[in-house]
Design goal:
Layout (H helix, E strand, L loop, with lengths): L15 H10 L8 H14 L3 E5 L2 H11 L7 E5 L4 H8 L4 E5 L21 E7 L8 H11 L2 E5 L7 E3 L5 E3 L6 E5 L12 E5 L5 H8 L5 H5 L19 H11 L2 H24 L19 E4 L3 H13 L15 H4 L8 H9 E4 L7 H18 L1
Parallel strand pairs: 2-3, 2-4, 4-5, 5-8
Antiparallel strand pairs: 1-9, 6-7, 8-9, 10-11
The chain binds pyridoxal-5'-phosphate (PLP).
Length: about 375
């Protein structure tokens, strides 16, 4: 028996305390100071994002997108059912109607082929979620959006430092393709600041207004740049920006991104190799390595054959001190959605709700712990035979 292996363990970057101290000693602890700007620059430079704004969470960033696209009550947003509640709530808050689309049969990402028939005159935007960091088919989504004049919002909460590979083999950072994109730095993600997120604006039309909404509906950002001589209330908005303490944590992590990513990829690959024989035996199904996406090792998941087997495996691993977990429950079947809406039949979303299991994956996970987890999963299937 081994010590408890948690599902996640937040990583502390080397400079984190030093940067936090630096903020505390400065006269600027609220938002949009030195560390916020360093983070914005980092993302804009490394990924070519047109404009970045740190937010207090990805949920906040999603809410900002609903304000930016001027969503009106009754307008419709197409989103995958297999996602986190915030992907839907951000738009429900503005009175929008959520239209759920099914996942692909071989990945939890939205099935692009099912989107077009959900579009009507009320449709305003398509939100795609890059599940486990793996890219949705962005060429196909953008084509549909252009045809019907819709906005595309990438919920890239899990997709930091990952790339979409298009049909010409060209690589584009996730978050750089949709009109607007959102990231999360929640402690369960690859790069973290406790709670935290970011809005990415790739379409010029949204740039000016995004800063205003970010700064409580005021033109304070242009005031501080000296563009206007006083600032006031010019639009709707809210308090979306994080404090400098959060930005300092985030910047320390960003300085180590290559190291963090390479460690996570090693762990991911070790799981993949270690479980490959079980896939060959038909015991389980590993995530498919898509040709149109790189892998940012956000998550290691696989699929069991039945829901009962999946739940038994989770229990079995928990008994051996391994905290494996399932993931999303289809949102179209949630009590909140189903009380007011006709529940569509989305079999692939339900399939992933029922069969998917996630394994511990964090920076400090040790080689011998990964070996132990792989051995226990093999033992479980050996006992079944
Ligand atoms: C984590 C996550 C969110 C929410 O992020 P927060 O920063 O906690 O608000 C939204 N969507 C997806 C797909 C996520 O994985």
């Amino acid at each position: 028996m081994t010590d408890h292996i948690p599902f996640n363990k937040p990583y502390t970057a080397e400079n984190q305390l030093e940067f936090i101290n630096d903020v505390l000693k400065s006269d600027k602890i609220s938002g949009n100071g030195k560390y916020t700007k360093l983070c914005h620059e980092f993302f804009e430079k490394r990924y070519g994002f047109k404009k970045c704004l740190l937010t207090s969470s990805c949920t906040d960033a999603l809410e900002m997108t609903s304000l930016l696209i001027d969503l009106k009550p009754g307008e419709e947003i197409i989103i995958p059912s297999y996602t986190f509640v915030s992907t839907a709530n951000a738009f429900v808050l503005r009175g929008a109607k959520i239209i759920f689309a099914d996942s692909e049969s071989n990945s939890p990402n939205i099935d692009i082929n099912r989107i077009e028939k959900l579009i009507n005159k009320n449709t305003k935007a398509i939100v795609v979620v890059h599940y486990a960091g793996f890219a949705c088919n962005m060429e196909a989504v953008m084509k549909i959006a252009n045809k019907y004049d819709l906005f595309v919002i990438e919920d890239a909460a899990q997709a930091i430092d990952n790339y979409y590979i298009d049909s010409k083999k060209e690589k584009f950072p996730l978050g750089s393709i949709g009109h607007l994109s959102t990231f999360s730095f929640h402690e369960t993600k690859n790069i973290i600041s406790g709670e935290g997120g970011m809005l990415v604006i790739n379409d010029d039309r949204f740039i000016e207004r995004s800063e205003i909404i970010w700064e409580k509906g005021t033109n304070r950002s242009s005031f501080f740049r000296g563009e206007v001589n006083k600032y006031g209330w010019v639009d709707v908005g809210s308090s979306f920006l994080p404090s400098e303490l959060t930005a300092a944590c985030l910047y320390a992590q960003l300085l180590e991104i290559d190291n963090i990513q390479s460690k996570r990829k090693q762990i991911w690959n070790k799981y993949y190799t270690g479980l490959y024989a079980l896939e060959k035996n038909g015991n389980l199904k590993l995530p498919q390595k898509a040709i149109s996406s790189t892998n940012n090792a956000h998550m290691f998941y696989f699929l069991c054959k039945t829901s009962k087997e999946r739940n038994n495996l989770i229990k079995y691993l928990n008994n051996y001190n391994i905290n494996a977990v399932f993931h999303y429950l289809s949102l179209h079947k949630s009590s909140f959605y189903s009380k007011d809406n006709k529940v569509p039949n989305l079999i692939n979303s339900d399939f992933f709700s029922n069969l998917l299991i996630r394994l511990p994956l964090y920076y400090e996970l040790k080689e011998n712990q990964i070996d132990y987890i792989i051995r226990k999963i093999n033992d479980f299937y050996a006992d079944l035979d």
